[in-house]
Design a protein that fits this description.
The chain is an alpha/beta fold. It contains 10 helices and 19 strands. Helix 2 (about 65-70) packs across helix 10 (about 405-420). The chain is globular, with a radius of gyration of 22 Å.
Amino acid sequence: MATVHVVGAGLAGLSAAVTLSANGGKVVLHEAAKQAGGRCRSYYDPTLGLTIDNGNHLLLSGNADALGFLKEIGAPADALTGPEEAAFDFADLKSGQRWTLRPNAGRLPWWVLSPSRRVPGTRARDYLAPLGILRAASGKSEGAGGTIGETMECTGPLYERLWHPVLLAALNTEPRDSDVGLAARILRETLGAGGRACRPMVADQGLSYAFVDPALKTLQARGVTMRFGRRLRSLENEGGRVTSLLFADGPEILAPGDSVVLALPPWVTSELLPGVPAPREFRSIVNAHFAMVPKPGSPLILGVVNSLTEWLFAYSDRYSVTISGADRLLDVPREDLARQIWDEIATLGNLAPELPRWQIVKEKRATFAATPAEAARRAPARTAHANLTLAGDWTATGLPSTIEGAIRSGKTAAHALMCAGSPARGAA
């Protein structure tokens, strides 16, 4: 029986392997690290004495591919937690004002007519501003529609208190400079789809508990071979097909019917396949974790404006903060960041000023820069090699670098092989 080799066990690679194995094909999963999950995994931090994720991630009830993946791998019922309705708590650190954004369930956005559901100091007609994003992106390919700053007014209370924090979190790039097509897709799949698609959810017990461990268990049950500690050095090809994978510990010779899904970061893919387009610029994310059980009644997720803190997560065993587009903070001493962020948390939650055990995680290349130029460099799943497809949140998914995009890319890469008549269909 022919084999599909999936190289990379991040969420994109796991998604591809799960999709392929569900169709009866023989699958081998290769991963350079000693564990799966890539940038979406959990690990024990001895400084905190807690298990944390290498990045906080917010999902929405409209993330159909991510939720479908959880269902297929039999993830625990408590894999994700969140409020019963679409509700987003916000606080202005400077003024002390707080509010809750509450979109109604249906697509018709009547919630903007209710002052108690919208951002304080805004009018219903202010919420028409993103229509410029949707119009500019209509019918355009990624990177061809211009920037958000060219299509909507990026000033005023509503922008500062809603669109800027939401778009910055989703795109991890200053919204004014971000690709309008990526923003349009986010709006269509979330707020544009109504409150039913906007209920926020987090993996309170960790991304590995929710996504990685159940996926590995499913793959094992389906007979997928998993090989960790295998770094791919190069590929050999002949006649428009990949013929061998050269790993650090030895070659993997492909049989005539074998195929490959390459689910690796863009900079690694560019080294292996120099002719394949890939983003070249990236943006960082800073996460801060504090070993303190949150006060009862603390919002699970709190958006914060006029502060260094952008999103405050109240997990069951800790407070965590995410700061997007954080290149400016990479050289700031970790202790200084921890002190400033905790001061803000203490103010927001009326907590003691003493700094608890903390950890700062700086991810330098967390996502590709969501600018029009970088969006235009995203590669499709199919390649010039008949038996090779690409996966990863950096590929042309139509979404920015998100869990939803990563999982979608894995499915797309797998289906591309199936449609090409590969052994993913279970052929011998």
